[in-house]
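tool=predict chain=A
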Amino acid sequence: MTDLLKNLMKDFPEEIIRDVLIRLRIKSLIRCTCVCKSWRSMIKDSTFIRTHLTHTLSINTQNATHLLLLHTVVIEGTHLFKEDLYSLCYDNPAFDQCCNIEFPSALKKVTKYQASRVVGTCNGLVCLAVDLMCYAFDLVLWNPSVRKYVTLPNPLGGYGCGSFGFGYDSVTSDFQVVKLATQLILNNKLYECPPVAQVYSLAKGSWSSLHFDLPPCVMDGCSPNAFVNGAIHWLALRLTNEAYIYFILSFEVSSESLREMMLPESFKYMSLGLSLSVSGDGKSLGLFAKCDSDTDSFLDIWSGEVVLVLEDDRELVSLDLVSKKYKSFGISGGQHCSVDSYEENLVLLDREDASSY
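tool=predict ok
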């Protein structure tokens, strides 16, 4: 920086500089961290990061410009994992592609023979679980916008495979990864138990356990969760009168409470193959039944369009529920896909323990 520019900057109040920086996009802000130490310190401040997110969400709502994170797992042959593909698309009827996202090379080594899964997205942070094609797993919190990620420590032991969820506590401004387990390990054997929530706090960097006085139930470890209105929701099954019925478990992240939500009679039964998602407005749950097929037909839904894989060549397409017309994403060979909302954010930029790529 030239001496002239330094002198000019001294004449500007810090509040004005902050107000200007708040309005910039992520890429521009990253460049601004190289201008001077004071700007770098300001941009990496946690208060600035939260304020920038609030401003970004407000502008996106006003302009009706929203991004979607598209994840596709490409399979060779029948079960051989090839690669994870990530891209950003605009949330419009055409699903126009914004850009491809580079997957961290260090994580590629971890997932060399294993596919990752998007547990959820929240305020610009992506929670990944490497558990689609294996019993072992790794958990990662990833921000593609600032090219940083944090690998989480393993959850506390003593419980069987659980279902993961991802949410944000707006009261404490903390991101939480939740593993909800319904099986206890004793003498290398699994036993049903009341639900136990193992909660990872990004702010604290550690796991804690919460026990709930609810009847035992069964959950699918890789089934989708939905973070809506401050709570993480999962589908669960319980045996009653010799038949399994569906219901919803809802974990409120701020109060750390767990409750059951009963479904309408027509949606209760296991044979429907239900799937849970978030509605297009992000304010309510979406519940969908899968077709009677050997493949997953309904994979995810957003803004009135179903994202699915055509069985013949595994081509990824979207189906408009009103016009009944298909649109191709130009991606084939995918076995698993997901579509999640995404907001650009500076989260993890201020964390020294985050890995860069």
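The CA atoms of residues 307 and 318 lie 4 Å apart. The helical segments are 3-10, 14-22, 26-32, 37-43, 46-63, 105-110.
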